[in-house]
Specification:
The structure is a homodimer.
Chain A: E1 6-16, H1 25-28, E2 29-40, E3 43-49, H2 50-53, E4 61-72, E5 74-80, H3 94-107, H4 112-128, E6 131-137, H5 142-154, E7 158-162, E8 164-165, H6 178-192, E9 199-204, H7 212-224, E10 229-234, H8 238-247, H9 254-260, E11 268-272, H10 278-287, E12 290-293, H11 295-300, H12 308-311, E13 319-322, H13 334-347, H14 354-361, H15 363-368, E14 386-389, H16 395-400, H17 412-425, E15 431-436, E16 439-443
């Protein structure tokens, strides 16, 4: 695409420039009460205090959002587009939930037109919720992956996705083979990886539904295409972990199954990790892999409580992003996801601050996806995907988050308090607008 | 108030006529695809299939809600009106949360005008969320209780409330005395109990903030006014339970503190009960007391997972209603509360069906408040408080809950599925309208 535009956005701004799990919040978070973001050709050209910058940009068009907070676009590090319509399916934990609801639904995605229709709804719903980048499971059918990438390309989105690989322990109508999954994935990588803003992830569903041969082929693809991603599930549910141990008796734990196939590296993102052992956290840390923490899903399926403080330890730090995991997750909203993450922390007698949650949703997610140089905050040169937040989008939020008295300097603590309430109570209504590469992509 | 009206409502209807925790759902739930509810003088005069009833009511005005599901008004069995503005306060578990956020906020309710202003916002927010009856903590200041009842009376609501009694372990500005709390409560009972639809609950905050003398005075009030309620907190948090054990060394557990003061009876409602022992469940069952299950609060404060299956056992059944527990609860919505209740069940490897949740929110809540003869379903003679639900109130809910094909008979399982999705994903937007005694009280 061609950009030859320069324009400005004036509002309050908040972004993270370092990780508040390790660095004091005052040193991580940039808050501009009255800021100016200048976007040229889709990227951040300048960013700072409005009064300091305005004289340099007297001749550009400036969109002003008074009483709004602009943050970097949300990043969803784990979601399934074919499960959009089966969100909130009743009464099962992981393995039964897959066989009862998921597999029959995913079958429909053999139909290219149907896949395209749902992909469009899915992407629009992400934008409605302020999510600008996601790491996405498609289905086993390569035509569904094509459909997804086409719709993402049409919207100029930075999206990472891949065809699901699964060659056992699933209905026959959903199975590929070790060989066909290798060939189809290879074709899709060649077709879509790095096309516009799109990136490819080699996507075996999880150890239970892949033979060792298929996992090895996934590893072979990663070796052949060293800058594609690996995206799969890991240690979500107790029964799942037991089943993996039975299927791979030679492996030393669940992560080791992937490790033996060459799937554990810097560009590998593992969804869930609820049941991980300390040794597995250490291995993920060593390999610089990432975990997608999916709290609404973990609560909805009763999978358990992710040990975020283990991933965010000083000893074995592991990159973490937030994932909605729709359709086991119950909302497309990263705000709702952050609220569930807070509940998980509280149930473990841990704390999760608003700034820590915002970090996970933006720069932390970007780093988990090895996109920290392109996304996650308003550093000059980054891609200008951002969200205009309304902290007062319902009557009760308006009561709770009173407008700041502009005559009194307000602090990072003030904005932390209001952002926290917005995470706990907010939803799609809190997203006034979503911008992609500086262009309006959704307006409430 | 005077009613001399008769009018009808046509829509789909769903109500519970028995308890689906004990009786097969097909025998509990009444679903009318095309039903007619006839209301006269605020009460249900007739209810049944539209085609069967319509010829009897040819001359009345009928409001038709096509593609809407009407259910009985939601009942919130535990909520604090003075905490409306401090919802979503960050980072503490129960005892620190009280001292850091709650007590300073409740201090403002010494101001009668302020109390009235917040009471109005609070009640409108309940109606916006489809809640038509609630059991409500006011503050220690009797003028805040007056303010609350006045606003509830103005809206013709069936509300139960009481002045908080607390004479120790709280800031001095929030303390009454054993004697003053007795006298003030007595005056309030005489003024408000059974006035229009209002009812009074004797309301010691919890064992930690009341002396034995104050609890005894609460018991004395219950003896003097046998049809008022008792409303307090019980066994929410581990540290709270430990603290109660230290403060009342002579008691055999937390519930026993209340029992010794004569506070454990059929009209007693205890909020939380997360940490209850089996013996305490048995005692509550024997006494016919009720528990308000407040899952969004229990998750937000990290209090723990309520053992609903213990309360709903055959051996020691205990009445249970849902409570939002705003401001520790994070939403006024009973739908959101039901969603959290489902998560709690899943984390305990239990199930909670949509119909069970609807029962807790309607007839179960009514029975917990000893109002099963007046509220909770569409039985003839009951008060006509009801909610018009939109099962397709967001784009993703519209995708998930497709309109039924009217050419194919749809089943209780179909409506269960859509109601479940509405509970998991729905919020105030799912409430198209709320009616009080057959009169429109809120319209989306």
């Amino acid at each position: 695409m061609q950009y030859q535009t320069i324009r400005g956005f004036r509002a309050s701004f908040l972004d993270a420039i370092a990780d508040p799990f390790y660095v004091p919040e005052a040193d991580c978070m940039r808050y501009l009460n009255d800021g100016l973001l200048v976007v040229e050709d889709g990227k951040v050209k300048d960013f700072g205090d409005y009064n300091e910058l305005k004289n340099r940009y007297t001749d550009i068009s400036i969109t002003h959002y008074p009483d709004r907070l602009i943050v970097s676009g949300f990043i969803d590090t784990h979601i399934h587009f074919p499960q959009t319509e089966m969100i909130a399916s009743y009464g099962e934990q992981l393995l039964e939930w897959l066989s009862t609801y998921t597999f029959p639904t995913e079958r429909k995605f053999a139909d290219r037109n149907y896949a395209q229709e749902i992909a469009a709804i899915f992407l629009d719903e992400l934008l409605r919720n302020g999510t600008t980048t996601a790491l996405v499971f498609t289905s086993v059918f390569p035509q569904s992956t094509d459909a997804f990438f086409e719709e993402a390309q049409r919207r100029n989105l930075r999206m990472i996705a891949g065809k699901v690989m699964m060659d056992r322990n699933a209905p026959e109508f959903l199975q590929d083979t070790a060989e066909s999954s290798y060939l189809e994935t290879k074709q899709l990588i060649e077709k879509w990886h790095k096309r516009d803003r799109l990136l490819y992830a080699v996507t075996p569903r999880f150890a239970i539904t892949s033979t060792s041969e298929q996992l090895s082929n996934a590893g072979k693809l990663l070796a052949e295409f060293p800058d594609v991603y690996l995206h799969t599930h890991l240690s979500e549910n107790v029964k799942e972990v037991e089943s993996v141990a039975e299927l791979f008796p030679e492996s030393e734990g669940y992560l080791d199954v992937y490790d033996r196939a060459g799937l554990v590296g810097e560009r590998s993102i593992f969804a869930h990790g609820v049941q991980l052992t300390d040794r597995e956290f250490a291995r993920l840390s060593e390999a610089k892999s990432a975990i997608a923490f999916c709290p609404t899903s973990n609560l909805f399926l009763g999978s358990g409580l992710f040990k975020l403080e283990k991933a965010k330890s000083s000893e074995t730090p592991v990159k973490v992003g937030l994932g909605t995991d729709v359709g086991a997750g119950t909302s497309f909203s990263i705000l709702r996801t952050a609220s569930a993450a807070y509940q998980v922390a509280q149930l473990r007698s841990q704390k999760l601050s608003a700034f820590q949650a915002l970090f996970l949703a933006t720069l932390g997610g970007a780093r988990a996806l090895c996109l920290g140089d392109k996304l996650g905050n308003f550093e000059i040169g980054k891609e200008a995907d951002f969200v205009v937040l309304d902290l007062r989008s319902t009557p009760i939020m308006a009561l709770r988050n009173k407008p700041f008295d502009q005559t009194i300097p307000h602090t990072l603590a003030d904005i932390s308090d209001q952002l926290f309430a917005t995470m706990i109570m907010g939803d799609d209504r809190a997203i006034s607008a979503t911008y992609i590469m500086g262009e309006l992509a959704h307006k409430a």
